Predict the structure.
Amino acid sequence: MSEADDIAERALRLSALAERRWLLPTDDLQATARARQLREHLASFVMPRVASLDAPLVVVLLGPTGAGKSSLMNAIAGATVSASGVLRPTTREAIVAASADDAKALREGTLRGIPAGKLRYVTHGARPGVVVIDSPDIDSIELANRALADTLVEAADLCVFVTTASRYADRIPWEVLGRARSRGLPLVVVVNRLPADTVERADVLADVGRLIRDAELVGPDGKVDIVPVAEGDLDPVTQALARSAVSPVLARIDALAADREQRRALARRALAGALAGLAPLAVSIADDTDAEAERAASLGALARDAYASALADLRADLRDGRFLREEVLRQWHSFVNADQVTRFFSSGIGRIRGAVLAALRGTPVAPVGAVEREATSDVIAVALAHAAEAARRTATHWSARPDGSALLASDAGLWSATPTFEAVLQPRLHDWVGDIAADVRARGAAKRTLAFGASIGVNVVGVAVMLGVFAHTAGITGTEVGVAAATGFLNQKLLQALFGEAAMTQMVDRARARLDALLVETFDAERARFEARVADPVELRELATELRGVATELAA
């Protein structure tokens, strides 16, 4: 793999990771800003360069107010294209010297994210393949101007820093140059308005060199190009520095314009530097992502605990049958307590099996439909109450935390169960009762002595099994007071008579297990509303690891 291919591959990987991070939810505004910065920087500056090393090179002129950037721009263009002066600020927009084709490529590529009103294109002195931009002052009192200058640094392939003998040590310009250093951008320094005195001139240039070395702005060869310009070394006709005074800058630009391979080499170096410069930001975003994973895991645990507790309470309520309304139990009690049935219970299960059919012929009509509807309605009501309590408990815990309260603010419905809870659960419970009937039918097919026919029917026994899930006596006797206990006792005896105790217990347990699975799935769906508000902690941790891995490769 060539060096260019390797750089492109890493850029693509980082871009994919940045996009993944951006799409994951977060309530941390600073983390969001960093994720946006990485994503936008890659999309606006890095990936267009990855797409083509032959895209026009961008040479950016940087400097403080009144340093002579515009005068240098005019010298490069060979015409007055940028107003020069000493008023603050002088350059309010970026002047872009580019051919028509290069200007189009920039608008579609590395400069596409900059508002059109911030850029003024000129063709004077344009050299195909090389674009020169006079940026706003990097110490401008207008923040928008400084922001534009910072943006142009990100788009640059070569920086030309213009300063003066009196202002070269100003703090703000060197802070901006720090970004150029982190990107590994090639740098040319123009020191304007140098004193005529040879000793003083040498002292200034020596000190500039020291600052450059201290700021680690030297190139791979340990050097940086410093172009001295004497005070008053101006073109007599235009608002420009004398072309002879800045001939090293002009020669550098002309050489790049004349040599495609040299342009590609510089573009490749700038691209590698841009990616290396993003390594610290990628590490910071990895740290943000790990922190987000911890918060997401903590919030998710609160939701899981609340819903697990609510589900356990629901299971307990369903097991002892106390949630069933008394009128539901009385309807079934009237059926199973008919004289013909209870008379045979006293004779023992072994004898009743042979006489069940005869006994049931004289009983009242089994209230199958009504009991099924009302019992499942009671199940829905108690399940809804517990789901609402789980939602309220989760929301209460989340609201006590800044990260959780921010997520709750966008959806007040999280404080209760979903409005469709009943509509979703009702048909599923109907299907559950149907599964019980299918189980009864399968059991009865192997027992020719059992009374499955018009007189008792599969659905009757199915309802008996359903109620057995909620009112299984587990040792209580018919002498205990209360409709629930009495109904549970008689219902159990009826099932024992038909199937035997072992088979009855197995059928009830199977029905209970299916109901439990149904409710677990329902509560999982309710809890998922909260979990959807936070990213998957596992995915976040994996993403953080990948970001650090790419950052390490880029920094190297």
Notes: Residues 349-362, 448-455, 473-481 have pLDDT under 50 and may be disordered. The longest strand covers residues 187-194. DSSP finds 20 helices and seven strands in the chain.
